[in-house]
## 1
Amino acid sequence: MAINWFKYSAPTTFYGLAGKLIPWFAISSVILCAIALYIGFAVAPMDATQGQFYRIIFIHVPTSIISMFLYLVMAGYAALGLIFNTRLSSMMASAVAPTGALFAFISLWTGALWGKPMWGAWWVWDARLTSELILLFLYLGFIALHASIDDPRRADRAAALLAIVGSVNVPIIYFSVKWWNTLHQGSTIKYSGTSMHIAMQQAMFTMLVACWLYAIAVTLMRVRSIILERERHTKWIAQLAEVK
Amino acid sequence: MLEISNLACSRGDHRLFSGLSFSLYPGQIMQIQGANGSGKTSLLRTLCGFITPDEGKIAWCGEDVRTLAEDYYAQMMYLGHLNAIKDELSALENLMISAGMSGVQLSESDAILALRRMGLKGRERLPTKVLSQGQRRRVSLARLLVSDAKLWILDEPLAALDVGAVAMIGDLIGEHLAQQGMVIFTTHQPLTVDGIEMRSLMLS
Amino acid sequence: MKKLSLFALLVLVVRRDLVLAMRRRADVLTTLFFFVMVVSLFPLGVGPEMDMLRKMAPGVLWVAALLASMLSLGRLFSADYLDGTLEQMLLAPQSLSVLVLGKMASHWMVSGLPLVLMTPVLGLQFDMTVEGIGVLMLGLLLGTPILSMVGAIGAALTLGLRGGGVLLSLLVLPLCIPVLIFGTGAVQAVTSGLNVSAHLSLMGALLVLALAFTPWVTAQALRISME
């Protein structure tokens, strides 16, 4: 049986669908997060060289991965909105951005917390940390540009173009920062000195899935609010139970 | 020939017009009428391709203007509210540069002739910042004389012009229509073109 | 009537913008003075030790050049936007991308090239070596056009917005980081006796990429902003 996917690309039907899906994503995210924290902090053994401090990577690594992944998702939705002029894609792009920025911020913060005992400084100009900071700037640029344009259509299209230019630039920026870092030879401690214990892998992977589900849940919540705001003059909104 | 079918346009949440359809044939002139804020300028800007319409199609000689893009721009001329002239440049430089940007190589003597016909004799080489509002409008309108565009889209062309200049614009439009040109314009002042029936479109 | 070739159009736009810049000379000089002033403030802030200044010089000059070019980018399209010329440019029957390229080129000649020419004097203030100054100038010569071109995208996107200038820097500066890295890296390579060709070729590659894509992207951004 073929499913008509285009049916759900209209804000009207997507609003209801998103409302039904949110609890599932939210609840499973909370459960998986609890499991990951339990494995990470109670089951996984102490690291030979880094002691207890290493446990922060169970939050740090998944949030970094998700923050980079979300930028691609955002740019993808933005490009769809720009090329095919689909309203929902543009709304999704602007709904993803704050979550991406949040994950980038958490990743930087946990990176700093890990850096203090490991490297003796809150901030080290490590290639990965610097790239993450630039990624946060790119998210903030997208959000700021979207927020400062009043006309929603122009805002969507301008921010979409910026996201696409940004995603083309991300590899160039990452490469140049890495090169810059090897030239300046800062830190030498790397994450993966030895092969990881199985429990560590489980904790990290579970947390990755939990973060991903969380991102989906809050994005859907945000996109529902955006739909309500943008379509507030339409009839179907006026007939919704929560609006009446 | 310009064909508009079922055009709809909105600014922000506000729907300006919808279901608008008309055709304009060579030798015809149409005045867009309506109160302030009824969407006259938005309609003209939509016809220029600045604004993407919510619904509907604009076709030039049977083809969508979006696909024609630059081929359509070559055959149309738009004069907006703003004069599009630079204060620091002289009337002559302004005219030659704007003609150049619309793809026409204009000789200095032709440009001077056009400016003189617009009543700017002796002011060709003055920086436009010393000219009056009406004179600056004339510099802008001189572009109509040096263009070979078929379709003229004029937004308030008569603003700031005196009676003599208004009559001259009337003559100019008459000549253009006689050469199978087309004109769409808005105005708050009466404009008559001898021997031509004026079509009009009311936006509400 | 005779049609204008694309190259003639490019020349026309560049000449127009240069004439306009010459008649509004104050704007050009402000950017240059800003550059000189920012660079001269650094020794006052960090102290006069020559060793440290020599080490910092390429970074300081590059960051100052970046900020100076951000300062002048706000004016790239805004004057044309306010007097209606930009509408006419969007209706150009030949190519909006070529028009945009012309505007980028004249922007660089007015705000980028003077910085390159000013560099030797400022380099001497920081006691840089002759080779160091040479490589720095070469890097700036390749890099400042990229700043103008990438910046033009930001200028087009923020056209007519409140607080556009600050927003512009927020959008464009992260995208300019590779230029900064390769430009300063080249100078550090030459002072430590290494080969500079890798840095400069990468910078050249970025310049070619920017030349190929930014005019078109900026043209699209202008169409979005004029809606």
## 2
Amino acid sequence: MNQHKTQEDLREIRRMMEESTKFLSLSGLSGVFAGITALVGAYFAHLEIKHFSNNYITYEILGKTSIASQELSKQLLLIAGTVLLVAIGTGFLFTWLKAKKENKQLVSKLSIRLIISLGVPLFFGGAFVLALFYHGFYGLVAPATLIFYGLALLNCSKYVHVDIKYLALCEMALGVAAAFFLYYGIYFWAVGFGVLHILYGAIMYFKYDRK
Amino acid sequence: MGKIDQLNKAFESRVRLGIMSILMVNDWMDYKSLKTQLNLTDGNLASHINGLEKLEYITVRKGFIGKKTNTSYRITPLGKAAFQQHINALEKLLNSI
């Protein structure tokens, strides 16, 4: 038994243990693109909100405030929906490309487990946010989405690179901060879903993806 | 040569090392997943699995998904202990050099 074989054996053991328990095909680039999409979305949302508040007095005079605010929340939901679809779509695309490049299966017991562990907190978080909408607590939407997203990430951290824990903690901390500064929700949102994703994705890309 | 004696002959092959590593950290792993994870052909994997089964390092569970058979494997306490000892021996060997 020589030294080289011993080292190789240990490396193989470590690799097999990690690869069989973690879904490592998640691409860092998908984080970067999700972040950029979120920032673009936040910018458009910001424009809509600004437009509404600039014309608030006019709406009041015309007695159209409730119609205009309904229109605003419809626009914001549309933006949010588009951002979500684009972010998930590009995320899926980059992950698929990475899995193909590394000759890995995309659909496996592991990726299903990952999606469930991510999806369950997100589903209930989403339902909770809908309840907030229903009662008109718009100010709490941003903090709630950030906190639930952080919890979902924390919940799936055992199936991906452990670094995601730091992202999860940052999202939750930001969510709590956003709850104290209710009227700056959109900015916390832009930081949480935009800036943090770009940062995290870039770090992951340089740490693991680029070879 | 006391240190080398602790190395388990059963784990000399890279395939067996791979099977045991995966089963150390996964409860019940099915044959197909094991095969893709290790990037192996059927015959190769089956013979090594049989070897480990004979040593009672792993147990087999045969089930059905629809009409297809679905065979899963799990490490036994004996296998866990043996593999742990093997890893310790490898590490000791490396440290002593």
